[in-house]
Amino acid sequence: MLVMTLAMATLVVQYQAVSRSQQLITDGYLPLAKTVARLTTWQARIDSDVRKLLVDEARPGTGPRSPATIFADKLEDEVAIARQHVSRSQKITTDPEELAALNRISVQLGRVGSHYDDYQRETRRILELAEAGNPTEVDRTSLMRLSGRLGDEVQTLAQQVDGRIALLTAKTEGARQRATLVALGLAIVAIGVASVLLALVLFALQPIGRLTDQVQRLAAGDYSGRVEVRGDDEISVLATEFNTMVGALKARDEALVDRAEELNVLSRYLASVVDSLQEGLFVLEDGSITLANPAAREVWQVERGGGMPEALDTLVAQGVSRAELESPGGRLHEVRLTPFGEGGWVVSAADITEATLAKERLARSERLALVGQMLAQITHEVRNPLNALSLNTEMLGDELTQLDPGRDTEAWDILALIASEIERLTNVTGHYLQLARRPPAKPVQQDLLALVRDVERLLHPDLEAHGVSLELDLQPVEPVLADGNQLRQALLNVVRNGMEAGARRMVLRLRVTDGDVELGLHDDGPGMADVEKATDPFYSTKATGTGLGLAITRQILEDHDGHVVVTSNPGEGTDIALVFPIRT
After folding, report:
1. How far is CA 117 from the centre of its chain?
2. 517 CB-contact burial (10 Å; exposed 0-12 / middle 13-18 / buried 19+)
3. 116 and 42: one domain?
4. What value does the mean pLDDT of the chain take?
């Protein structure tokens, strides 16, 4: 390194000198040579113009700006530029010889300037005499002598500059060659020294190379290698300790491999068990999820490394161990939280949507069955007296016809009221019997378009009598498996409810959406507030309603694996949708 450093330092010093010489040539002498060349050119033109001026007769009006004076001005400008180049060159070099040469060039420029001043004064004097009409007083010999001296001084200046350029170029080339030879010699010495040292180092590091090779083999899992180094130095001790370490590592690695394989088998088994669970299962530690099975990722949109859903995070913050929550997909889940580690939680979420709906449906069916049995008994007991009352009312009417053919007495009004109330009670008991004795659905291929139009024809007289318009908005639907009579009854109940609620315009629609059939009715009636109770038995907003129409409709839809959706606000009308899956 020392020899190489010395070689580089020598080379730098040598080439700095070469660089300064080259800079002096390019930035000093060459621009100066170009300026001197222009001086020579302008001097030649001055000489030519002076000869013409002396030979030709003076022409009036020539004035002080004759070509001779113009070219002389150019020469003066070039002398000033040359002085600038000399000054710049003196700043570049520190060589005494070059500084002396530049001083001589500067002196020569002064002489050129002095002769130029003499020539300029003589030229102006001759021109003034010619302009004044005294050409005989012109001393042509003096002007020619001044012009020749100026040319000689310019020529001398050019020779000085060209000579310095040639001399400095030769010196620069010699210095460059010497620098190259010195650098080459030092580089050869450095390479020789480095080669000797490298050989010594390689010989001394042979044991370390063998030790390094065995370390690499050990890193690759090969424990068979041993390092044999004789002696009692540090490298021998290191090799002995390394061989001991290899034996210990081999024994430990074999034990770890066996244990890792057991753990891998157990981990894969547990992972398969967790992934096969239908319940969502994930583990929360330090605010982030560290484990989530496919069911949890699908239902709750959680990922490993992410955070808990907001609803579940609220349960964790409250320390609730069990709750029922709705997932982002709208399904109802039973969520259980179990503490895990320090501040961690194991969260399991089971889908109980179907079970909850089944429980509600079963409870409702049991209630309706119990109510139906009770209503059947009550209806049986009530219908017999109603039949007797109806028969006696008809007989009483016959008697009144004989007594009062003109029907002018109040008895006829009383008799009509009794007959209408008997008919209303008969209809109510009919609804009760329908609820109690409704047969199971018998699905067959059913044309829903024809069914809807049939319902419209059946209700047309009643609708027209109540001043209600019913519009049909039907989408073509392929025949589906359904119980036509029950669906017809459900539609009749829905339309009659709207008509009895006070609607004046209704729209009955048929749509297919996402694999379901939707039979919907929109009316412009008064609407209702408690839409959750709309399908409950015996709930009615009408003064004379039984509250069984939508309850029966709901039962019919559930028999078709469907449901009833009621949307309403007071004063904004009501939308009722009968939705059931398509089966063909």
Report:
1. 81
2. buried
3. yes
4. 76
